[in-house]
Amino acid sequence: MVKRTLGLLVIVAVVAAGCLGGPTDTAPAESPTDGTTSISSDDVPGISNGSLTNASALARANEAALSETGGELTTSHGTDGAETSLRLRIAAGFSTYTLAGSFPGGGDQPQSIDIWSNETKQFVRSGTDGDARYRVVSREDDLPNTIALAERYLASGDFTVRNESRGDGTVRLTADEYTPPADGHGPFGEVSSYSGTLVVAESGQVQNLTVSAVDDEQTVRYRYELRETGIDTVSPPAWFDEFPESASLDPDVEVTVENSSYLAIRHQGGDAVPQGSVLILTTNDTTRNATFETALGDGDVRYASIGADDGALRLTEERPDDSAIEPVMSPVSLSLVTDEGVTIHSGGMAWESTSASSGDASGGGSSESAG
Questions:
Q1: Is 109 helix (H, G, I), strand (E, B) or coil?
Q2: What does the alpha-carbon distance between residue 272 and residue 336 come to, in Å, rounded to a whole number?
Q3: Which of 275, 139, 254, 159 has the alpha carbon at shortest distance from 206?
Q4: Separation between Cα atoms, residue 340 and residue 229, nearest integer Å
Q5: What does the pLDDT look like over 113-148, one tens digit per residue?
Q6: Cα separation, 99 vs 365, whole angstroms
Q7: pLDDT tens profile 45-88
Q8: Which residues, listed in sequence order, are joined to residue 200 by a DSSP beta bridge?
Q9: What is the rounded distance in angstroms from the CA atom of residue 47 to the CA atom of residue 77?
Q10: Distance CA 146, CA 148 (A)
Q11: Could you report the per-residue pLDDT of 147-185, keeping only the tens digit for each?
Q12: Contacts of 257 by beta carbon, 8 Å cutoff, 6+ apart
């Protein structure tokens, strides 16, 4: 029997791929200056001789200013009809924050995301069209990715000073040429046109950053706007009172593919997977569900297979008969969700096989809990 480990991906709250936000009705943040002092652009971190020459220095100054005062900002990124939009409200010192918004979910409906974070954990609620999912993940970084992402866009253009001092303690810069990143990890690929505007205070606190580029024949837009400053604490949002108890569960579960035909789900420690939890399996562009009729505790194993007769997903305590099942096709993704809607495990893998029963497979990795 050939066994391949299913490499499970920890679900993190941001989605990844950049946390962004959209337009609001909130009044713009007041400038951190009193609005009466003219400033020199050369006093702004990262700006020298009328140009933004060090995007990293400006990004660090912006982060330091937000850490000192706290603040609320919105960002947005994407193309028409596929935009990620988020609002971030963060306390001074980055001790607590809330993040709320939406991003493309792969279907007709956008995916919603809500996060409340204290100094050690992130409490996440996500879903589509009212179908909420909950999870708790460790807070790995002090800085939300929403803020860190701004550096990539600051470095993406040839920003030069347009207004040396606007009379409100800020400087305005514009850009009309794309600057490819030295490390090759910029926000764009094949850019045919580019424009950008940056408004920044003397402290380096970014007030507004907008970028528009035609990338691979698609118009991509990014917007960062500071809405408010002077926030000392951020309390849990109203939905936090409804956060399920099972969100604190942390099972140690390993999932393997056996004989390229079915999955083995092994409990190796930590909390049990509760009775009534659901295995959600996607393979060959089809999603199937199966319910744990009993809890999955320490040392327990459940085998997940697809019936050859009806195509239904089954969970059994015994290995299935190969002649009675349809082989699980690569790639696969799965999640374990409690009856309270809490995702306590999630991941996916791909493998190669000359046939479903040959055992000539490759791939794998380590299993990890999503909680």
A1: coil
A2: 12
A3: 159
A4: 37
A5: 999 999 998 999 988 766 788 888 888 877 888 898
A6: 31
A7: 999 999 999 999 999 999 999 999 999 999 999 988 789 999 99
A8: 171, 206
A9: 25
A10: 6
A11: 989 999 999 999 999 977 677 889 999 999 999 887 777
A12: 3, 4, 6, 263, 264, 328, 332, 349, 351, 361
Q: Which two tokens stand for residue 221?
A: 């837009």
Residue 356 is given by DSSP the state T
Cis, bond preceding 244 (omega within 30 deg of 0):
no
Q: Which residues pair with 51 in a beta bridge?
A: 48, 160
- Nearest by Cα to 255 from 369, 125, 118, 129: 369
SS3 280: strand
Q: Which two tokens stand for residue 169?
A: 């303690």
Percent of the chain predicted with pLDDT > 90: 61
CA pair distance 302, 265, nearest whole angstrom: 5
Residue that is written with structure tokens 């794309």 in the block: 178
Distances (CA, A) of 154 to 72, 106, 148, 212: 19, 28, 11, 12
